[in-house]
Design brief:
62% of the residues lie in helices and 15% in strands. The chain is an alpha+beta fold and 159 residues long. It has one domain. Strands 1-2-3-4 form a four-stranded antiparallel beta sheet. α3 runs antiparallel to α4. The longest helix is centred in the first third of the chain and has 28 residues. The protein starts with a helix and ends with a helix.
């Protein structure tokens, strides 16, 4: 069980580090509104500031989002404490989700908004809202949790 807790902690530290360093790098080296094309027709880097939550909804409520983030972090830690630590995927998944929540909370506390910079799109018409490493960590973590829950429930049924 100690190895799983160590994996959880390493996942959190690595995720938060990757998020904060990537935001620092982009926001200290790229001028505002300047776009860097990495993969033409698919991926750009552009500075963006999100004062709301998902897709920029409900802007201007930074203090409310800070409280919500703290509650979400507490809920994630509660789930982790109750979790079967022997499920490798769940340990990694919750570590990724928690690191993403911490990374975005860091932005909300220090900048009063979340710093986004990944611009994913198909051609010029279809743009996904800009996002950051923390958002990606949360999405990947949730995907792993869903996959793990389906595969573990399938495994239990076969026993």
């Amino acid at each position: 069980m100690k190895r799983r807790t160590t994996l959880f902690a390493i996942t959190i530290v690595a995720g938060v580090f990757a998020d904060i360093v990537s935001k620092w790098f982009v926001f200290s080296h790229l001028d505002r509104f300047k776009k860097v094309t990495l993969i033409p027709g698919l991926l750009n880097i552009i500075r963006s500031e999100n004062e709301g939550v998902i897709f920029g909804m409900f802007p201007g409520k930074a203090n409310v989002f800070i409280i919500f983030s703290l509650l979400a972090i507490a809920a994630i830690l509660f789930v982790y404490i109750k979790l079967d630590k022997n499920i490798f995927g769940s340990n990694v998944a919750l570590g990724l989700i928690l690191s993403g929540a911490i990374g975005n909370l860091w932005d909300r506390i220090w900048f009063q908004h979340v710093r986004d910079f990944i611009d994913l799109h198909l051609g010029q018409r279809y743009h996904w809202p800009t996002f950051n490493v923390a958002d990606s960590l949360i999405c990947v973590g949730i995907s792993i949790m869903v996959f793990t829950s389906f595969s573990s429930s399938r495994h239990k049924k076969s026993e």
